[in-house]
Write a structure and sequence with these properties.
Layout (H helix, E strand, L loop, with lengths): L6 E6 L14 E2 L2 E2 L1 H10 L6 E5 L3 H9 L19 H16 L5 E4 L9 H12 L5 E8 L8 E4 L2 E4 L17 E12 H7 L7 E5 L11 H20 L3
Parallel strand pairs: 1-4, 1-5, 6-10
Antiparallel strand pairs: 2-3, 5-9, 6-9, 7-8
Length: 244
Amino acid sequence: MDRTQKVLAVIPARGGSKGVPRKNIRSVCGRPLITYTIEHARAAQHLFHRIIVSTDDEEIATVAREYGAEVPFLRPANLARDESPVIPMLQHAVDFIERQDGVRMDWICLLQPTEPFRTVSDLEQCLRLGFAGGCDSVISVVRVFATHPILMKRIEDDVLLPFCVEEREGTRRQDYQPAAYMRNGSIYLSRRDVLMEQGSIWGQTIRPYVMPLERSVSIDTELDLKLAELMMSEQIALERSGSL
């Protein structure tokens, strides 16, 4: 791992979630959701220049600090509305840290707290892909089957037609081609200049980092929260029994 490259880890945690109210600090196995992401980032702190939480909410800030994250500022209200895009929020965080520390970042790593199952190894491997060069970003993805494009249809003149990929009758899911992948929201690693100068997280060339389904649960609904609770309970039980 290239220790000369400076990486800022940013955990965004707006207070005004609509789909799952207060989701960033909702309890999952007795702990606020955001703390799992803070824990993963801190366990990988050798990779990062700093790990910060960007929030507009005093309660979230307090929780984040209790679990060892930095909250060097409260996010301005104009960057914390329902319609506020993520890029200006990240640019604000980078500008603040660069001014405060008098350094220039090389990479920005966005870690959403709604994805609690990433690992330190996931973070290390993403950074290795980025540091190897030849890309503007590294984005974590998961292979999909139930939402593969082959299953998507359109209705035209009351006739069901393929949306973009023709499905032959009897095709097994393991035979869906080409393999399809979806962003799982867990890790976005972006070159600093792509974010700050081009106003993009993705850039032109994106390297994929493929994660398994069991580490790709994203909490956007109450049902997702229940699934995460069940999965986390099983993971904790396995860890306590020494099976992991």
